[in-house]
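re the bet — no i am not wrong, look at it urself. input seq straight from the record:
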Amino acid sequence: METSLFDYDLPASAIAQTPAEPRDSSRLLIDGDTIQHKIVRDLPTLLQPGDLVVLNNTRVMQARLNLFKPTGGAVEVLVLNEKSEDLWEALIRPSRKVASGTFLYNTSGHPAIQVMGQGSANSRIVRAVDGTIRDVMETYGNIPLPPYITTSLEDSERYQTVFAKHETSVAAPTAGLHLTQSVLDRAHLAGANVASVELSVGLGTFRPIDTNSVSDHSMHEESYQISPETWEKLLKAKRVIAIGTTVVRALETAAITENLVGTTNLFIKPGFEFKIVQGLLTNFHLPRSSLLVMIEAFVGPRWRHLYSMALKESYRFLSFGDAMFLQRDAV
């Protein structure tokens, strides 16, 4: 399947630069025989008794560090994930000018991290000079917003979900950004249950497919964990509603591997047989992205009509944008 099939014209004006206020006021396009236009606050009206709504409760790390080489040159470090005891994988810019063994300094001139060697692909391995990398992130780090968001974020908590727990991600599970405690409470009143998984969102989530063929694209690997209690709820649910594509990957990986804890590089493409998820709340995704490929696997090529309509109706796209509610058997 050609990657060009997942291209579309996304005007810069359609990319949301700031989150909606309040969270649940984001617009919601509802797929079906008749397409509806509502807001996320209406989500509980779409739920049924016996539904299970599944959230990704990961929290975004303060993973972006602005540091300096011994020469005084500025270096940006993006911490990705822990490889072993306080040895972390990171992206460094400009990487080619930072040799292994180099100390990188904070604004006070104190060494903060040391570059230890080469990681996978273009990443490097780093360690903290004093304390841990998590200490360094907490002291000097910033939330790493996606590069297409060029407006500064006044409140960093708006790039966290209201149910976020452990800091394991470098990007937010953005569909969850729309939800409030009120929406979740009313989901319960509608007869649905709510459960959580944790999938550590990596940068690869947003990486466009750069191969001509979709099948040649290599998926990034992300860690996930699902509690036995959540899995029991899944098995008993009449319908499973995933809040975001990261939840889909975690649940469908577990169904395939029968492992509730592990890593996944699952690439969900057209022809994939879904075993768990019947409904999906998701944002509008980048052209030529693996997320868009997943959407076609979920609802077929009609995503093009939905995206065209969303652009015509001035929906906001990407991380701070609006959302869609999709069901595999909607049409």
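see?? The radius of gyration is 20 Å. told u. also The first strand starts at residue 27 and ends at 30. so pay up
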